[in-house]
Amino acid sequence: MTDRKAELAANLARVEERISAACAGAGRKREEVTLIVVTKTYPASDVRLLAELGVRHVAENRDQEAAPKAAECADLPLIWHFVGQLQTNKVRSVSSYADVVQSVDRKRLVDALSRAAVGAGRELGVLIQVALDVDSSDRGERGGVGPDGVERLAESVAEAEGLRLDGLMTVAPLAGPYEGRPRAAFDRLMEISSRLRVAHPAANMVSAGMSSDLEEAVAAGATHVRVGTAVLGVRPGLR
């Protein structure tokens, strides 16, 4: 085993212990939570090593980095998640490799993704990114639509050809009433998810929690956690 593979294996084992302990503490089964490894700024060679170590879900946030990396790893049995703020001019590229787009926050983006998915002959999973630093249907500081805008946007996704409404995503906010309170933020996301599932029962995916707050996300009920630094190490500068 190479040094890098051994390092990744050890880091994955530590993250696995954290998720398992959080599930046990919350009275949940371990299989209820899926680990997504955020591979942004790291090379395709790391993605290959992660796949060898059993990782199946990886995430990227910049198309210009993700597209060539996904192409280089096209032979691997991976599910690719796009988690960054997405401009409509990048939609065609992203829809060619992403299996799930977790950062959908406006109708214009829904329409663009629908056209691209149909053009590519693919079905794209979509998560609505919920901004918990705003109360209305405005966009948040880090992207996302305010809680009041979720229902209308969900209807747009559900009606869009080529798209599948999978659920919700959030990032613990840096401002507003939930600043420094990730557990409260994730509890609020679960409330919004419960309401969404009344009209859309299959939209049961809840993506929340990162390296620093995955325990709070698991305790709140998240189905997916997005972990980068704890698996891959402190990120080098953006290349």
UniProtKB/TrEMBL annotation:
Keyword Disulfide bond found: no
Domain of life: Bacteria
Modified residues annotated as N6-(pyridoxal phosphate)lysine in this record: 40
PROSITE patterns membership: UPF0001
Listed SUPFAM superfamilies: PLP-binding barrel (SSF51419)
InterPro entries referenced in this protein's UniProt entry, alphabetically: Ala_racemase_N, PLP-binding_barrel, PyrdxlP_homeostasis
Keyword flag Transcription: no
Signal peptide: none
Keywords tagged on the record: Pyridoxal phosphate
Record CDD domains: PLPDE_III_YBL036c_like (cd00635)
Database matches in Pfam families: Ala_racemase_N
Domain Alanine racemase N-terminal: from-to ranges: 12-236
Family statement drawn from the similarity comment of this UniProt entry: Belongs to the pyridoxal phosphate-binding protein YggS/PROSC family.
Job of this protein: Pyridoxal 5'-phosphate (PLP)-binding protein, which is involved in PLP homeostasis.
Protein name: Pyridoxal phosphate homeostasis protein
